[in-house]
Design goal:
about 250 residues; alpha+beta; two-stranded antiparallel ribbon; 7 helices; 10 strands; UTRA; Chorismate_lyase_/UTRA_dom_sf
Length: about 250
């Protein structure tokens, strides 16, 4: 269920196309998101370039998700998606690495007893106290993700809603001595429900990417279950793939 996005190919563009690509980037920098580029014919005349060469440079920027073509309408600027690595890294750290400012809005916070499903995921007895909360995660004040998290209350005594306005992993490490070691995550495409769509400021017809996962600490305890819904128009997931060695099968005669 993972998508692979091609890298930009501008290093292999011929000289004139690379020059036009640079001019297009300068033009994009002057336009707001969603603005239409001037018609292809006009740009070809302005920059004294063949339309085929111009089209090749535009194709490159479409691949890099800096431009989007709309059939019968034209070519428009767009905000590139955040390419999030599938790995043990929190939202706040990931966003900071990309030069943006992370933010959090607490949407729901409650103490409750673990029902069967939550107890199974967290590997605790049914009825044990848990903390469940929902947060809207932002990048430069733009809504990106709705995270629903469940923690065993015994692992985080005294935690309150106001403690969760930043990085959860930093809080767990610094206050509770819980080190994130590993985890498992499942990724799937979904459509948002009305409440989640409202939080993300998107229509219910906007496809999203959902992850569901558990995290383990250094004592091999499950300390977290999180279900997160990412805006499909702002996020792409990236993973590193490696070949695994498999033993050769010995031929058998029948």
């Amino acid at each position: 269920m993972l998508e692979c996005y091609p890298r930009g190919m501008h290093g292999s563009l011929p000289g004139k196309a690379a020059e036009i690509r640079a001019l297009l980037l300068s033009l994009i920098d002057t336009l707001p998101e969603g603005a239409a580029l001037p018609p292809e014919r006009e740009l070809a005349v302005r920059w004294n370039v063949a339309r085929m060469t111009l089209r090749r440079a535009v194709d490159e920027l479409v691949i890099e998700e800096l431009l989007v073509r709309r059939h019968g309408s034209g070519t428009y600027t767009t905000r590139p998606k955040v390419a999030r690595w599938l790995g043990m890294i929190g939202f706040s750290e990931d966003i900071r690495r990309r030069g943006m400012r992370p933010g959090t809005t607490m949407l729901e916070f409650r103490h409750q007893k673990a029902e069967r499903a939550a107890a199974r995921r967290l590997r605790i007895p049914v009825g044990d106290p848990i903390i469940a909360f929902t947060r809207l995660r932002l990048a430069d004040d733009f809504p990106m993700v709705v995270e629903r998290t469940t923690l065993p209350a015994a692992y985080v005594p005294g935690v309150e809603a106001e403690d969760l306005n930043g990085s959860l992993y930093d809080l767990l490490t610094n206050r509770y001595g819980i080190d994130v070691v590993s985890g498992t995550s499942r990724l799937e495409p979904v459509m948002p429900d009305a409440k989640t769509a409202g939080w993300l400021d998107i229509p219910v017809t906007q496809p999203c990417l959902a992850t569901h996962g558990i995290s383990f600490d250094s004592r091999d305890r499950v300390f977290e279950y999180t279900s997160a819904l990412y805006r499909g128009d702002r996020y792409a997931f990236t993973t590193e793939l490696r070949m695994t060695q498999t033993p050769r099968s010995r031929a058998t005669s029948f």
